[in-house]
């Protein structure tokens, strides 16, 4: 590895001189592991998030890894799908080519590799220092460390985010046995958000949400000194598990391949949290508590141990022996404010020696005899766990150290550990974000003063464009009214074009215009977090849907009266850029502005860079619920130029009312970043681009998949709601009309949302009907033993009043008795899916259920098969998509 390369995408490099202080055999251990896993090529050029999300032929296979080189990709694929078995590194070997099918199946079953399944039982099994070979399994912690060392900063963040959803323990200090530089993963953990029930001593409790990096909590470290017959990780899992619900948060030796020796993961520090839910029967602790776990012996990893003693409220030391060596190791901790507890095994250690040195350590570490716990294997394990919990609860209740991960990083720096966030690009991006956000005192005032082209100006333009479009499609001959509308539109656009981008917008444009792609990505992430901490205006009342609109006295919908305020986000800055581009383009088209005087023609190219790097871009503006046509077509034209020969597209959309889990479904299926959470995110429809691997694009029939999330646009308005229903139906028609494949997300309802049914009926007339999948998601099912991916719901039963009313609006008459009577609803071609509940257990400590993950994978495989087999509408190139956007 080039020591001048930043391991996290940027930075000042490492000190080459320090490498030579260590034996060559030690330096080669990491390289051997990377070579075994096929990751050595990702040291100079790190593995990126986009690399991990590419769709390949393997995306359609539920396959078991057959060699160590398969393990990183298997882990990433399963983690993307939030699969609880992602950490399992069990491999299945290929059978000989000439084996008969029955023999092949039998042989594959026999060749599942476990530590105790070696062919030759000999003294070699004790050679723990031997590196793994292609025929032996890899310890999951070695795989995780190797993958993180081979990933750029943004893939590291994604890995951490998805591990947290699976309730896996997260790496906090990453060891590097090659260079002996250990890294505190502050940046990688910034994307992790924790939710818990906060119950004050007096008053009403409430649900709180905060970054795992910023929230403070007492931390308890568990470490091993020399040899311990007790497992730290199993003990931690038991402490974290309420009642009889075991959780394997920390990987331990009783799991598959858990006894395999660690080759590069010793020195790893992991973190996990207990988060209360507000239920007394489940809440082990009344407040959030962090648990830290050091892998390996503290004598070999003194730096990590020293860090834990400085950031923890208490340290639990598991050991079988305390001798003079261990006494000298712990003596420097004299005077520490941290509390220390010992967990001993009475059968393995030397009893008298242990007692002698314990008595000497008691005054040094300010302990008493209650700080020594004896864990006997035959002892009631539940009782011992209760005792450990009571100690943790007692310490947490008393005045003790409470640090955030950000504050822990300060301690790490003082000890000489690297902090991944300290690289120059990241810090420059952070400084730029702070120059923008420090000026935001009130988000409403900021939008009015800085985002000047939005609000009333954009709403007036959208209304005029809508009226002009309706007049053109009506087919009436040109008249004075249309001329007046065009004149009014040019006046409004000229007013917009007369403004200059405000200071915050200019700073934002500079942030995404820099020559360094890494710095742009850092800046966008910092902006997302910085704006999220700017308090949004408080809603006047919780609406039934986000599209609760108040008609004015003249009957025109007033979009400014949305009752659920939209939080300030990156999309608002991009909307402002879009409006500058729209206004300028409109004037150029009308001949009111020479093309040579354009100042904002490069804006779509800047936004496209963000789309290509995984940022969702807005297709339908959430503030006016209209499409900025020139901006969207400008983006697509830039995309066409950028992709060149690889411009074949499939458009996949997901529609449904808010809260039906469609955004989570898309994120799980393709590893995307659509906003989730009911009633708290942006309102518009967003799109993201998923790349198809070149080796698979010919087979699949496309080069990219454009995924569209309808967000909160479809609110379930009834046909009797008049203009509000017509608005939702028009938006649904637009999204489905652009799509080759549409996923309709349903939740505990027999009826398709009226606007979506209306769109189906409209598109049926045009002959442009996407391949569709109805997905029923069980939102309240906490735990399902297994997936039931396809199950016929009563969608073919007689429709309710809403569906009949919609059908009558489209003049289908009274002949519709069931949805099967509609031409588009062919029972033989219809795909109706049942997706089990998302959570296994009760949030916030619940993990994603295996049934949910496996059902989403089956749905994804079905969608890709339909695309490959041509069951979707004819795939488009980008030019065709541009024309379709204009027509719709």
Automatic annotation (TrEMBL):
Keywords: Cell cycle, Cytoplasm, GTP-binding, Nucleotide-binding, Nucleus, Phosphoprotein. The keyword GTP-binding applies. It comes from the Eukaryota. GO terms for molecular function: GTP binding. Residues 646-886 form the VLIG-type G domain. Coiled coil: none annotated. GO terms for cellular component: cytoplasm; nucleus. It is found in: Cytoplasm; Nucleus. Gene3D superfamilies: P-loop containing nucleotide triphosphate hydrolases. The keyword Cytoplasm applies. Belongs to the TRAFAC class dynamin-like GTPase superfamily. Very large inducible GTPase (VLIG) family. This is Up-regulator of cell proliferation. The gene is URGCP.
């Amino acid at each position: 590895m080039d020591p001048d390369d930043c391991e996290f995408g940027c930075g000042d490099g490492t000190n080459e001189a320090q490498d030579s202080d260590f034996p060559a055999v030690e330096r080669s251990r990491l390289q051997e592991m990377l070579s075994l896993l096929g990751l050595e090529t990702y040291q100079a050029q790190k593995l990126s998030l986009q690399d991990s999300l590419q769709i390949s032929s393997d995306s359609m296979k539920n396959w078991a890894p057959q060699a160590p080189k398969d393990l990183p990709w298997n882990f990433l694929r399963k983690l993307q799908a939030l699969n609880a078995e992602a950490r399992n590194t069990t491999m299945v070997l290929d059978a000989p080519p000439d084996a008969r099918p029955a023999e092949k199946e039998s042989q594959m079953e026999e060749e599942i590799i476990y530590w105790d399944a070696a062919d030759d039982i000999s003294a070699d099994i004790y050679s723990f220092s031997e590196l793994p070979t292609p025929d032996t399994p890899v310890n999951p912690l070695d795989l995780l460390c190797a993958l993180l060392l081979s990933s750029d900063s943004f893939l590291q963040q994604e890995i951490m985010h998805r591990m947290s959803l699976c309730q896996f323990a997260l790496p906090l200090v990453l060891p590097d046995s090659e260079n002996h530089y250990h890294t505190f993963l502050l940046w990688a953990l910034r994307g992790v958000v924790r939710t818990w029930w906060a119950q004050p001593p007096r008053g009403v409790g409430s649900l709180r949400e905060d970054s795992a990096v910023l929230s403070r909590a007492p931390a308890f470290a568990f470490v091993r000194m020399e040899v311990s017959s007790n497992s730290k990780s199993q003990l931690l899992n038991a402490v974290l598990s309420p009642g009889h619900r075991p959780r394997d948060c920390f990987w331990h030796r009783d799991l598959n391949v858990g006894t395999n020796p660690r080759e590069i993961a010793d020195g790893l520090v992991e973190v996990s949290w207990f988060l209360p839910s507000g239920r007394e029967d489940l809440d082990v602790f009344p407040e959030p508590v962090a648990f830290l776990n050091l892998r390996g012996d503290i004598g070999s990893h003194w730096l990590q141990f020293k860090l834990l003693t400085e950031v923890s409220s208490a340290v639990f030391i598991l050991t079988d022996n305390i001798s003079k060596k261990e006494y000298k190791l712990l003596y420097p901790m004299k005077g520490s404010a941290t509390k220390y507890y010992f967990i001993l095994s009475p059968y393995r250690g030397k009893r008298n020696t242990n007692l002698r040195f314990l008595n000497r350590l008691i005054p040094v570490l300010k302990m008493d005899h209650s700080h020594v716990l004896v864990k006997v294997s035959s002892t009631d394990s539940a009782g011992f766990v209760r005792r450990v919990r009571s100690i943790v609860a007692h310490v947490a209740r008393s005045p003790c150290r409470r640090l955030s991960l950000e504050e822990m990083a300060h301690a790490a720096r003082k000890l000489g550990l690297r902090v991944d966030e300290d690289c120059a690009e990241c810090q420059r991006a952070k400084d730029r974000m702070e120059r923008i956000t420090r000026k935001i005192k009130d988000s409403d005032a900021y939008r009015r003063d800085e985002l000047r082209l939005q609000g009333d100006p954009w709403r007036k333009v959208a209304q005029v464009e809508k009226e002009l479009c309706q007049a053109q499609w009506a087919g009436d001959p040109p008249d004075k009214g249309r001329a007046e509308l065009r004149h009014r539109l040019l006046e409004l656009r000229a007013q917009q074009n007369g403004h200059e981008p405000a200071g915050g917008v200019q700073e934002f444009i500079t942030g995404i215009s820099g020559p360094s792609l890494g710095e742009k990505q850092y800046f966008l992430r910092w902006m997302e977090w910085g704006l999220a901490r700017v308090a949004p205006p408080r809603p006047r009342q919780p609406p039934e849907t986000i599209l609760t609109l108040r008609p004015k006295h003249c009957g025109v919908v007033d979009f400014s009266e949305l009752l659920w305020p939209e939080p300030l986000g990156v999309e608002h800055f991009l909307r402002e850029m879009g409006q500058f581009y729209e206004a300028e383009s409109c004037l150029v088209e009308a001949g009111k502005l020479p093309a040579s005087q354009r100042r904002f023609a490069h804006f779509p190219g800047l936004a496209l860079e963000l789309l290509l790097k995984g940022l969702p871009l807005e297709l339908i503006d959430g503030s006016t619920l209209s499409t900025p046509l020139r901006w969207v077509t400008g983006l697509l034209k830039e995309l066409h130029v950028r992709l060149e020969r690889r411009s074949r597209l499939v458009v996949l959309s997901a529609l449904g009312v808010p809260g039906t889990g469609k955004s989570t479904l898309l994120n799980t299926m393709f590893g995307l970043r659509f906003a989730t959470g009911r009633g708290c995110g942006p309102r518009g429809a967003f799109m993201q681009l998923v790349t198809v691997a070149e080796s698979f694009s010919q087979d699949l029939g496309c080069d990219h998949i454009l995924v569209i999330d309808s967000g909160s646009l479809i609110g379930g308005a009834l046909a009797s709601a008049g203009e509000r229903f017509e608005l939702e139906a028009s938006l649904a028609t637009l999204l489905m009309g652009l799509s080759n494949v549409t996923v309709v997300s349903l939740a505990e309802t027999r009826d398709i949302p009226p606007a979506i049914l209306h769109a189906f009926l409209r598109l049926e007339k045009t002959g442009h009907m996407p391949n569709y999948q109805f997905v029923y998601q069980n939102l309240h099912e906490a735990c399902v033993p297994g997936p039931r991916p396809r199950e016929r719901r009563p969608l073919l039963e007689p429709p309710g009043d809403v569906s009949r009313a919609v059908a009558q609006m489209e003049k289908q008459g009274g002949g519709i008795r069931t949805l099967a009577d509609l031409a588009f609803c062919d029972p033989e071609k219809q795909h109706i899916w049942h997706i089990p509940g998302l959570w296994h257990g009760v949030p916030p400590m619940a993990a994603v259920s295996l049934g949910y993950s496996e059902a989403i994978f089956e749905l994804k495989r079905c969608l890709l098969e339909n695309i490959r087999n041509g069951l979707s509408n004819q795939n488009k190139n980008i030019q065709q998509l541009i024309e379709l956007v204009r027509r719709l």
